[in-house]
Design goal:
The protein is α+β, with helices and mostly antiparallel strands. It is built from twelve helices and 16 strands. The strands form four sheets. It has a seven-stranded mixed sheet. α2 packs across α7 and α11 packs antiparallel against α12. It is elongated.
Length: 359
Amino acid sequence: MLEQEIIKKLKGSLKQLLPLDELDIRLVSEPNSNLSGSFDIVAAVRFESLRFRMIIEVAAGNSLSILKNKIARLKGVANEENRVILVLVAPYLSPERQELCRKEGIGFLDLSGNVHLHYKSFYIERSGRPNRFPEKRHGRDPFSDKASLILRALVEDGVRLWGIRELAQQIGLDPGYVSRMAREIESRGYAARINAKLRLRSMEGILDDWKSSYSLKKNRMFGYFCIAKSMDEILDRFRSLEIPDRIQYALSVQAGASLVAPYASFKEVHVYVSSEKDSAFFEKQLALRPAEKGVNLILMRPFYRNSVYFGNRVVGGLRVVSDIQLYLDLHGYPIRGVEQADHILNKRIKPVSKKAEQG
C-alpha cells in the first residue's frame, strides 16, 4: 500500500478508528510553516477543552528500518513544539512495533484498529487487533534463500559499491532477478543507490527484520551422541578428519560462535551438512549414534540450501558459517543463544555497520 493510499484510507476511517463524540480532527495537507521539516500530515485536534496538533508520519511498509527513520523524524520536532502528539500511522503495527513506539514516546494509529494516543486528559489505547492488510509479496521476499545472497554480499563488505551485473556475477544469480530484488531492498531502506550502484544502508534494519522472518527450527535437525568427554574433544575429532572436498559442512550456533567470538559455554555441537551422503560420512568417521536423549552433536540440513555457506571461513582448523548466519541461528537457540548472538553483533557485525554508515 502506498503512502497516499494510507492517507486516503485514514481520512475515510477516522471516525471508526477514534470513536469519540467530543473529538474533532481536521487533517491538513501541508504542515504549519513554523514546523521545521515536512511531515506527511498535520492535524488540528479539539477534545473537550483541549486544543493540540498531531504531527503524523505514514509508514507504508513493515520494514523496521523505515519505521525507525519515521520515528527519528517525528522525534526531531519534539523539542521545538508544545501542544503536539507525535504519531506514526501504518496499515498494521505488530505488538513488537507498537512497543517500539511506546518506548520511543511516539503515539501510533494503524488502519487495523490498534491505537495509542495520549495528551493530558486525552487518552486512547487499543491493541490486539489483527492485521487487516497482510502484504502479498509474490516472490519479493529479500530473506528467501536465493534473495538473501544479495543481503549477505552487501553485509559482508558494508562499504562496497555494487553494480547490479557485478553483484549478480559474484553471487551467481540472474542480473534481472538481482535488479528486481535490489528495488525491493531499497524500498525497505536496507540499501541505497550511489551513482547507480548499490550499497548497504541499514545493517540494523536488515538484522531486525531477518531474525523475525527466519528460525533455526526451519533447518532439518538430526541428533546424535558422539563419544567424547567434552565439546572441545568433539571439535578436535572433527579437526582430525580428512574431509573430502566434495563435502560441504560448516559449524554454527554455539560451537561455531566459540571459534569466532567465544562468550557462552555449550553442550551441543551444531554442524550444517548438505546431503544424506554427507551425513553418512560423519556418522561413520565419528562413530555417531542416533539419539533422542543425551544428544551432543546435531547435523543440520540447511533451510538456506543455496546461501547458508556464503561467507563461511576456516577458523581454528574448522569451517564456520558467516557472522550473519551465526547471529540468525543463535537467536533461535534457547540456551544463552540471544546473549551469544548479541556478543557476535557487538564484536563482529557492528564494526562493519559503522564503516557503512560513516562512508
